[in-house]
Amino acid sequence: MIYSISRKLLILTSFMFISACGADDVSDQQWRALDLNNTVLLTLPHGSVVIELAPQFSPKHVERFSALVKKSFYDDTKFYRVIDGFVAQAGPKDGTDKDKSVPLLAIEGQFSTDKNWSFTQVQTKDLFASKTGFKAGFALASDNNTSAWLTHCPGTLAMARSNEADSASSHFYFVIGQAPRYLDKIMTIFGRVVYGMEHIQAIKRTSVVEGEYAVDSREHTPIISMKLMIDVPKNERIIIEVENTESTGFTERLVKRRARENEFFYKKPPPVLDVCQVPIRSRFIRNNKI
């Protein structure tokens, strides 16, 4: 089939994907396996994308999204709102029976924390929060010791809504540009891309400059299929491990990245590290599942 990926191509792409992240070493002890029940395989006309869901942060949205995916709800729908440098949004056509068949969902923009809750800190005095960091691979922010929220870094997956806070249903978007952090807390982030971001970036833009003809809906990028990885036949699964952001090695990498000690930096930038500029690495598990 035109949408299948050969073993050889997967291994080559794996090497390129990991190499592009930088030169720092990551030991085997610093990798984390994904839960196949909370991993999604999105197939686009031009490639495959693997998404990690975040039930620990946005349980109701993950439950809704997973249920729709299991019903093949998104198959053959299109990315109808794709703005360069911003988001790629998809879902059923507004107002259709399919669209109206999904009930509204209350927002999960923040989650509660307590004194025993911890995360790997990246920065203090962030533009949008008092501190930022990572928990289970997801970028987040917090202002106090009672609540935190996921951040709109590139590659995050969130649920779209109308003006009302509790008006999300089935439409979703990926962040494809500079992090729109002003959307933090007022939208629900419930996943992130761990493989295939180049395919998300290649989705057809639907916005045009003033004076240009509108992009015909027939040119919008379709979703070929979307499945939970646990439901994908074993010989077709893309099995990914991701960097463990709770490991000592990851913390050390943050220190090095902040210091910019590489000789390339003949002029040292300020020791500032934006949480959205810290790549969380992924790698293929090279066995007979690929």
Descriptive report:
With 290 residues, this protein is an alpha+beta fold. It has a single domain (7-284), classed as Cyclophilin (Beta Barrel). Helix content is 16%, strand content 26%. The model is unreliable at 1-24 and 286-290 (pLDDT under 50).
Helix-strand layout with pairing:
Elements: H1 7-19, E1 31-33, E2 39-44, E3 47-53, H2 59-70, E4 78-82, E5 87-91, H3 97-100, E6 111-112, E7 120-124, E8 131-135, E9 138-142, E10 147-150, E11 156-159, E12 172-175, E13 188-195, H4 197-201, E14 225-228, E15 240-243, H5 248-259, E16 282-284
Antiparallel strand pairs: 1-15, 2-3, 2-14, 3-13, 4-5, 5-12, 6-10, 7-8, 8-9, 9-10, 11-12, 11-13, 15-16
